[in-house]
Amino acid sequence: MSAEAETIPGQLPGGDRLKEIGGTAARVLVPVVLALIMGGIILMILGKDPLAYYAYVARRGLLTWGGLQETFTRMAPLLLIAAGLIVAFRAGIWNLGGDGQFLLGAVITSAAAPVLLRALPDLLVLPICMILGIVTGAIWSVVPALLKARYGINEIITSMMMSFLGTSFANVLIKLVFWDPSTTVPQTRTLPVDDRLPRIIGTTVHSGIIVAIIVVILVHLMMTRTSFGLKLQVVGANPAAAVHAGLNVAGLTIATFAISAGLIGLSGAVDILGVFGTVRADWNPQYSFLVVPLVFLARFNGYGVIGFTFFFSALMIGGDSAARRVGVPQFFVLVLVALLLIFLAVVEYLDHRRRKKAH
Amino acid sequence: MSEIAASVRNITKRFPGVLANDAVTLEFRAGEVHVLLGENGAGKSTLIGMLAGMQQPDAGEILVAGKPVRIGSPRESLELGIGTVFQHVLLVPSLTVIENLMLGGNWWQRLARGAALQRFKELSALLGVEIDPDALVGRLSLGEQQQVEIMRALWRGEKVLILDEPTSMLTPQGVRDLGAVMKRLSSNGVALILITHKLMEAYEFGDRISVLRLGRVVGEIAPERLKVMSETEVTDTVIQMMFGSTAEHRRDAEILTGRGRAAHKDRTVDRSGTPRFTVSDLATEAGRGECPLRAVGFDLWPGEVLGIAGVDGNGQKHLAEVLAGQRHASHGKIVLGGTDITADGVPQRRRHGVRYVTDERLGEGTVGAFSVATNLILKEIGVEPFFKGGMTDWNRIHDHAREQIRRNDIRTPSEKTPVARLSGGNIQKVLLARELNAEASVAVFNKPTYGLDLQNTRLAHDRIIASAESGMAIVVISTDLDELLEISDRIGVMFQGHLAGIVDNAPDVERKIGLLMTGAKSEAA
To answer: Among B346, B365, B367, whose Cβ lies nearest the Cβ of A237?
Structure first.
């Protein structure tokens, strides 16, 4: 990815702005189409019918009411993780410890919720649990944040290691501390369906998606319209300039980590409060690594990431059933995402070259 | 007439928006020092880039020993006997001299130390220098490192040697040594190409002078003519080639000829009052490969320009950073107008009126991908009036930017253009606009004209003088002594982290500075 300009609201006036939006749409849609074509060719080589595969994906993920609701439900945790990653990546901090932060947020929430429910009403328990998820995620980022801020140790390594520790620790907590005695499989006590996040009226989609969209928009506004966001962008784009301008780089690094990991912890909390109600040992959906390419595809843009998570959720939901019916492995969805990334890079490169020539 | 070692014919090279070389034709003869003179952006670097195999010409041809060649890589260039010594030292400091010289070999071959030492002796004799082949390069002086660079450039053959502004890092003594080396090489039949923008050097070292301007060869002085011309005649001729007229552009000529002292205008600085800025016993801790400060102290009065001279790497960077508040002082005190600001960081010092114009304009001075507008308020993020209650007032920031662009004549398509798209001179204007406003009381400049063309150099000098005259106290750190001679009231010399001495900018100042630069403290004082 090339260096990004700072995001300023309303970047270009009038006609230029429309042109820019058109250009962005082309830069996104062309790679999507190319990736689908290439994926189709691969399916043909495997002896499968690509049209049948795509038709199943579209029907299950988008075109049936039940599938669409599942797609929206899946979007909630992905979007919250995306929000967390945008904050970090914009600030040049590669928080790749999302899986640990997510799982710990989920486990602590699922352990706390049934206990809290004995004393408090739903209306209080749900927000308290979300805050618990945020705090848990943030705490799990303290070690890499301090190592980065104090000693400049590469956070990619430390956050990933903390992630391995985090997923293991989450397992240990379930097996040794929070194991629901009434089950044979190690899992936390299940939150009754009535006490989970309320559904959006007339659907099976829980209200976590609303929380997620609000959070993404808030993050976007924070990055574009506050001095804090601009400071983060400076640190991310040129750390030496941040020192030169007298920004407190260490403090900003720690804050960035806390926000990023906190939002990912919140994602874990929302997924439990909205969908599962319990965490089983050895459960790890590995969402955060799936979201990383989406955040890059959206070029760290909050609104862009909403579109990409929707697209990806539909692929995930539709791909599951399509894979079974057509007889290709389930991870074929990941092949499509990989192709998308490759074509996006190619299109960006060509666009860059064209612009350079035009100058 | 001696034979032609290499030549370029009708070489043209385009970059986006720039015609860097426009049908350039030049001949480089064995046993001759051929000087290429020109401002920044005249196309000198592009031309040598093509001879060194780093770029390919769009049109035209390069001939070596009479045959057309295609130089596709630096390696091919070396194999043709064309060696290039670039402005900055490109040796591995933690390896010995001989190890550095053996680096260019093929990876599948064993290191043949015996043969390498043989070649090293040959070249030492050719250059007339004595260097211990087992000394660590990092321990050598910059002049010696440059000699090792020359050896490396000549390692595979000694037809053509290109020297790109070789004197910019050297002490006056180092320059003399380099002159002797060039003389020996040319008398041994090497064709030398010397790139410089200083006329004095061209006159002193050159046999033939070619002047480039805007990518074209605009004139040449052949050896026969050059021999019989005086320095003033050469100066006038070259100025005429570059600018077309001798009467105008007098000041350009002064900058170009490096007559800093002659261009200096004495100003009276009132030193009877208390100093505006007092630095005492300042020390810093150094990371690897840095030179720390040791016991640096000076007083600075309002309206005064203090120049800090010295060869690069003698602690200038630390001095600038510690004064700006970017670097922690491990010892000593900085007092501004009676207030101790030693413990203050950049934002507090900025509020007190301390300004720092860095030499790393894109490295740390600006965020290249960000707009001109944002870079103009880079040091005011979170500060009113551009930010209110933590919220960004983009309208205000853009209004401010348009105003600054107009007032400082910053050439940019718009205030929203990424600053890295601007030319060096315009980026410097952005920095100056940001740093030199009404509230400034002390300003530190680090190499304020480094990499700028004549016009922008003049503008920067004017800006510094004008700021001093408006009552600011100014520190200018520079490795260009002529620049300091022109604009400073007093000049201090950094040597190995010490401020070796401060002398008044009086007629005999050059000799004193030369002594201080080499560490001879007692004689000069």
So the answer is: B367
